[in-house]
Amino acid sequence: MLTREPTKELLQEYKSIWMQYKDQLRPNRKSGRELLDYLQQKYILTEIWDKEAADVVVLSVTKNQPYKEKLPVGMAPVPRTFFLENAGNGEVFYTSENKDPIDIWGGDITRIFIGIDLTTGYFTAEGSIMLWDEMYAFRGLDEEDLKNYVRVAQYILALKRFGLLQQTVF
Q1: Res 20: pLDDT
Q2: What is the pTM of this model?
Q3: Which residues have C-beta within 8 Å of that of residue 152, sequence separation ≥ 6?
């Protein structure tokens, strides 16, 4: 997950990763519903019934061309928003080594926000890069994503983080 403007060196590293793996990957992107089901089976989530929270997801999809392109014609985003509870399997994301650095959000993380669009599969996880990586590794990439070296590199790095690379590449 990029949290800062990437350096030329980082982009070069991403291009190198893409070149190494691009021909070994196949489209495997799961839907927003599948991603949500995965999270609900694994973690304790508290749904947020708040227009502002839903707007984070809707505006991310509709105002960013790469996400908007994944929106089928005539369809609208279907946002679902949650807090990941600091309980059960979710506790790991609240430890100091797995929370986002304080400078990203301007303070200590006390709640981790998850937003998912059921229509496009777009998601956000604010408060834990580790959780974002897990969601990205699970969701996978579609045909268009596989053409984007940044997306492929982030996916490969997320797979490596969770020991899933060997079962994903062909």
Answers
A1: 97
A2: 0.91
A3: 14, 17, 18, 21, 22, 25, 141, 145, 146
In angstroms, the Cα distances linking 163 to 30, 62, 98, 112, 134 are: 19, 33, 17, 24, 11
59-103 pLDDT, tens digit each: 999 999 999 999 999 999 999 999 999 999 999 998 877 765 565
CB 1 within 8 A of CB 129: yes
Would you kindly state where each structural domain of the chain is located, as residue ranges?
27-161
